[in-house]
């Protein structure tokens, strides 16, 4: 638990008592609080903000959401948050681990605004990120307030519980959604999809995997050359292969065994592609469309699509391994939106959690400014993904799709409708689409039998989805 030099020297200089606690790396503040049995109310989080005058660090309780209307009114500045790579670079350039953000504004030489929700009893312990990625710092509240002596204290955040109560009681109309979204979203990011000026660059690993998928002669040795360069990917491949889902009779003790004897080349490439792509995006783990729910739904959908593909007559031209990939990636737009618009994505998850009766598409349009299939298809096209995948991402909510490669989007649509029966995914109906079923030649009883097959493997599928959530090292 070695603290970054910037953090350690600053704390030593201030000569205030503190203790360090080991915490899991790669987890959200909420996950760390749960794992260590600490009140989220006493966990400190930060948001870096900027305008033409420079940077400001907003410091608030982990249990609160930042209210941009209150913040901008307090400072009389039109501040917008730094997102993704900008925030990571700021702290990395000052010696911190990627994704680790200590709330020590003076140590980093920027002004701060602290929310009065952090004012607790003097002896109450408060906890914050130590900057090393695996260390939490605990100190008395009175000492923490002393660290923030030069910060400006204001009220600019509200407890999530209060927000949930408001969302539960207020009628959900387009006007109300827009009003609430504007309150918790920085003004410069209210234009919706037009605010996304560019998408993240495709990672090199993804490029390599796509090149392998394009070659019919790709074998296990080709995959090994990529995977062996990245220990985290290598560990994931072995982990996937050891899943009971594959029923391998003997221990999987090597990458080659995992690829050649258990997963197969196509399945390995698909899982590596999904995992490597998702590492580009940072979104919360929890929530109805957080990373946990995203991968669970994606894995179930991909598995069910595979079962449905087995039922297709020879006249339907569908490649099984490509159908699996379509199921795996069809909701990727959520990752993009969560990465680019974290404040709105947090709010979107809160809306969904307390308004299950409202169509997801309606909340998407008014809170996020677009729907996930729109931005997802844009990403897939930008990253030169197969046309079949782009079609599945773009059309998987459309019942009457007759576009090129509609067979793939129809398979995903049917799979999502079936998953509604077991409470997985964002489809609002379990009614199987008649036209899609007819054009694919799948009967109702066959579809339900495919769902039963997937249900029989739920424990193994859950294990696989958890493996895909593992963070990349480095």
From TrEMBL:
Signal peptide: none annotated. It holds the Pfam family HDOD. Residues 199-399 form the HDOD domain. It comes from the Bacteria. The lineage of its organism: Bacteria, Pseudomonadati, Pseudomonadota, Gammaproteobacteria, Candidatus Competibacteraceae. InterPro entries: HD/PDEase_dom, HDIG_dom, HDOD, RNase_Y/CdgJ, UCP036888_HDGYP-like, YbaK/aa-tRNA-synt-asso_dom_sf, YbaK/aa-tRNA-synth-assoc-dom. This is HDOD domain-containing protein. PANTHER family: PTHR33525, RIBONUCLEASE Y. CDD domains: HDc (cd00077), YbaK_like (cd04332).
């Amino acid at each position: 638990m070695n603290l970054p030099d910037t953090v350690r020297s600053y704390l030593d200089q201030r000569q205030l008592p503190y203790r360090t606690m080991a915490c899991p790396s790669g987890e959200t503040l909420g996950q760390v609080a749960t794992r260590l049995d600490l009140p989220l109310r006493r966990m400190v989080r930060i948001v870096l903000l900027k305008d033409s005058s420079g940077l400001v660090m907003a410091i608030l309780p982990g249990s609160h959401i930042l209210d941009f209307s209150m913040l901008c009114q307090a400072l009389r500045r039109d501040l917008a948050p730094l997102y993704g790579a900008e925030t990571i670079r700021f702290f990395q350039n000052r010696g911190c681990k990627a994704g680790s953000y200590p709330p020590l504004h003076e140590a980093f030489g920027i002004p701060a605004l602290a929310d009065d929700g952090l004012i607790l009893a003097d002896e109450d312990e408060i906890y914050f990120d130590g900057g090393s990625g695996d260390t939490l710092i605990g100190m008395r509240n009175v000492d923490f307030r002393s660290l923030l002596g030069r910060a400006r204290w204001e009220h600019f955040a509200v407890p999530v519980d209060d927000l949930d109560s408001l969302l539960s009681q207020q009628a959900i109309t387009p006007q109300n959604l827009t009003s609430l979204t504007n309150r918790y979203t920085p003004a410069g990011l209210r234009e919706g999809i037009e605010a996304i000026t560019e998408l993240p660059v495709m990672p090199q690993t993804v490029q390599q995997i796509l090149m392998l998928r394009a070659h019919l002669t790709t074998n296990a040795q080709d995959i090994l050359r990529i995977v062996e360069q990245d220990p985290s990917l290598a560990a994931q491949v072995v982990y996937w292969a050891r899943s009971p889902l594959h029923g391998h009779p003997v221990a999987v003790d090597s990458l080659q065994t995992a690829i050649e004897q258990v997963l197969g080349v196509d399945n390995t490439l698909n899982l590596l592609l999904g995992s490597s792509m998702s590492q580009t995006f940072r979104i919360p783990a929890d929530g109805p469309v957080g990373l946990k729910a995203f991968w669970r739904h994606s894995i179930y959908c991909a598995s069910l699509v595979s079962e449905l593909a087995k039922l297709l007559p020879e006249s339907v031209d569908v490649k099984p391994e490509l159908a699996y990939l379509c199921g795996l990636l069809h909701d990727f737009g959520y990752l993009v939106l969560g990465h680019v618009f974290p404040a709105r994505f947090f709010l979107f998850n809160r809306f969904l959690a307390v308004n299950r009766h409202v169509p997801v598409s309606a909340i998407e349009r008014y809170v996020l400014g677009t729907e996930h299939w729109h931005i997802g298809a844009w990403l897939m096209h930008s990253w030169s993904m197969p046309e079949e995948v782009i079609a599945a991402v773009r059309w998987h909510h459309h019942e009457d799709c007759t576009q090129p490669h509609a067979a793939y989007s129809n398979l995903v649509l049917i799979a999502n409708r079936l998953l509604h029966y077991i409470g997985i995914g964002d489809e609002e109906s379990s009614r199987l689409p008649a036209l899609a079923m007819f054009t694919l030649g799948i009967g109702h009883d066959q579809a339900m039998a495919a769902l039963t097959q997937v249900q029989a493997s739920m424990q193994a599928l859950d294990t696989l989805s958890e493996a895909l959530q593992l963070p990349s090292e480095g």
